[in-house]
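= Protein in question =
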Amino acid sequence: MSAPDGYSVQLPVADRPVTVITGAEVEDELGWVLGHVAGLQTAGAKVTVVAPEVTTAIADLAQRRLVTWHHREHTSKDLADAWLVVAATGDHAADRAIAQECARRHIWCLVPPPPVGTGSGVGRVTLVGGGPGDPGLLTVAGLEALRSADVVVADRLGPLATMAELSPHSRVIDVGKVPYGRATSQEEINRILVKEASAGRHVVRLKGGDNFLFGRGGEELQELVRAGVDVTVVPGVTSALAVPASARIPVTHRGLSQGVTIISGHVPPGDPRSTVDYQALARSGTSLVLLMAVTNLRPITAALQAAGMPPSTPAATVADGTLPAQRVVRASLGELADAVADAGIAPPAVTVIGAVAAFAAASDT
């Protein structure tokens, strides 16, 4: 019997520096890299990525200050303070050289496993809702789909840490959309899904939240059915409910709210593209949950007040919900936009307006 290649343990990485050396051209190992970057960040490590270029998902984590990105080639100095190094440059010889240097310095180093397999040969797509961000909130069915995937077409808000669960032969295509930044068009995403499935591969489309709630899952389903591709839908835990819950805000509560209305705030009131009736919302008597509303929070709260909702109405915005970086800003409806701006809140964030928004604060006293 041959000796095992290693010994499995959990490393206490919280608050310890970890260096990830990679680049944008790591197609074969992209899932492995994203899984480790997101998993280490979720575990509380101080993650520094060193690469001349990175994928959209890593660039987004850096923009949100969840990881640090040094936009350059790596040097030996990048190993100086690291407790753990992840080497995935796309060049296996370079990865081995980094690992050897780490061994000389008594630093643990991870390198990608060798690729195996060529795909299942069964062309199909599984649309997976990945949940609000915490990898523990991905459903069992979603995780099983990822483990059997030949190709994963991933968004930036999916639970990237779960990429560590992928089979070594799985290929990841990063199609993340950053607000007012890098983006892959929906038409291009549809084309990729059809192309990869038509080549006989099991394709998993991984999105954050639930892909049928403001996730364009319906559009992707229509395109795949039109192309004759077999499709399975795995619903996800929606951020509209889970993120407020993670901040101890129940969107309905006996004696406070008998309903909840979920709206998209990606366009402001009065915009020709908006179909939201803010007059009706203001008098609906339900809790309001706003998704994609950080940029337009001021005109939205102004429209609700103009429609008769009292400025004193409790409100809260939860950023990076369910993740270690979660932040909660509480204020009245009239003061929320200023409070969110002063706190430097950026997407992704969920806003709750109504009596329930004061629930957790009251229970803390």
About this structure: The radius of gyration is 22 Å.
